[in-house]
Amino acid sequence: xxxxxxxxxxxxxxxxxxxxxxxxxxxxxxxxxxxxxxxxxxxxxxxxxxxxxxxxxxxxxxxxxxxxxxxxxxxxxxxxxxxxxxxxxxxxxxxxxxxxxxxxxxxxxxxxxxxxxxxxxxxxxxxxxxxxxxxxxxxxxxxxxxxxxxxxxxxxxxxxxxxxxxxxxxxxxxxxxxxxxxxxxxxxxxxxxxxxxxxxxxxxxxxxxxxxxxxxxxxxxxxxxxxxxxxxxxxxxxxxxxxxxxxxxxxxxxxxxxxxxxxxxxxxxxxxxxxxxxxxxxxxxxxxxxxxxxxxxxxxxxxxxxxxxxxxxxxxxxxxxxxxxxxxxxxxxxxxxxxxxxxxxxxxxxxxxxxxxxxxxxxxxxxxxxxxxxxxxxxxxxxxxxxxxxxxxxxxxxxxxxxxxxxxxxxxx
Length: 413
Known about the structure:
The chain is mainly alpha-helical. Helix content is 69%, strand content 0%.
């Protein structure tokens, strides 16, 4: 008897569980054999798709996946000829028996993912390659999503990933809890990776979803793990977690029931999560325990002021923080966000001058910002920039929002 399998069930479980299964398997195989772990994880989901259509969805789908992955791993290790060619040379004899006896408890998954991200973020690869690898291996990002996060071409990212994976195999890395020196040397890259993971969830630049809450939740969960470890509970870590909490507090208000974006000024503030704002306050206080003022501190400060909608000087505070941020950690998006704040303080004409000076013609956000700023000054120019932004974006939700803004202007003419 065939059963109806919801279209979104397997993709949803794949996003949440694939990287967890891979992390636990890599903990036993070693990162140099990541392709084996990824194959087993993929086969697990193929079996789920086939089995659940025939027999129905199990009561606990995630637990079912872990059981199948565990059994597939044991079967794999029993196939002596494959074991000899791919595994024996990389695992000591005493580790072979351990590899057949492991579990998918929440603690094991958490430990494996945390250890894995530190292993991937190894200085033998470039900083950019480390982040790309971690986003793909630990977080399940597609090549397109990574390219979007780096504002880079997909071919460039593919080549970077191939080189980085080859380096991992050559260095024979294993997923083990790194020591103090390794943690301290890699923490900056780990935090940057989690920051990019959260950003992709908060404002996805690929696919049809504006917000991917599961990515935001995963980034928060992993960052929270860092705050619970004495070696990684640093002011920067707490500042990043505060930023994530502040930003997450507005997720429910940022899109309508159809998944379309709602601009900040139009959001229903009663839907903001006071609990997450309070958590943001808590971690921001923890972050300010020393003299450090990292880019995460500045961004958390900006996010904090966004949770205070009625302060008449809010945008002046935000602009001052952006002025510091573009010096501390310049990026095109930071410059554009600063320009928006600048326009809020000094008016749209001043904002247009600032934006035009950036000359970021290949970015959709550059044109969407100019469309917004020109809306009250020159309707034709506003429409032109909105058209260019629509042509440049890969997000269906973003296209809808931009077309809606452009249609309002067309109707006014």
